[in-house]
Design goal:
Layout lengths: L13 H7 L7 H4 E7 L6 E7 L1 E3 L2 E5 L6 H8 L2 E6 L5 E9 L3 H17 L8 H10 L2 E6 L5
Antiparallel strand pairs: 1-2, 1-5, 3-4, 4-7, 5-6, 6-7
């Protein structure tokens, strides 16, 4: 079951919660985060910059179709740290939940692409594009672990 930071969650600071509540119209700066994953072979921490997506009241990592080291790392060890760096700086422990069911992948990818479409048209939610992302893009839900303030 996915834990999501909610207003009534006493463990989530208001400024952190606000930084996570991005809308599809949010600028790229607001959705840009770093994540730390742990190497699939080495177990060593690896930090990269990426975007996160907030759709359907949940948080996801995805991207254009292709191979991603961070996804391979999360398949081996689902623990990660989400590093917020705009409007607020915070390091949030989380667990990655791989989304593998084709119908759920399609539903979430469609929502992500519709949101990205609203950002300026560099991609769209056409059937062809949705199919390509469903077939070849990594997709994980970010399950935030409640932490004390």
């Amino acid at each position: 079951m996915t834990k999501s930071p909610k207003k009534e969650d006493p463990h989530m600071k208001d400024d952190v919660r606000a930084a996570l509540e991005i809308t599809p119209q949010a600028p790229t700066r607001d959705r840009t985060i770093d994540i730390t994953t742990y190497g699939a072979s080495s177990g060593m921490p690896r930090r990269i910059e990426t975007w996160f997506h907030h759709v359907d009241g949940r948080w996801f990592l995805s991207g254009r179709p292709g191979r991603r080291d961070w996804y391979a790392n999360l398949r081996k060890n689902p623990q990660l740290v989400v590093h917020l760096k705009h409007h607020v700086q915070a390091d949030l422990p989380a667990t990655a939940v791989l989304i593998t069911d084709p119908r759920e992948r399609r539903r979430i990818v469609t929502l992500i692409l519709r949101g990205l479409e609203q950002m300026g048209g560099w991609t769209n939610a056409s059937d062809e594009n949705v199919q390509a992302w469903v077939a070849g893009s990594p997709l994980v839900e970010i399950d935030f672990i409640a932490q004390a303030q």
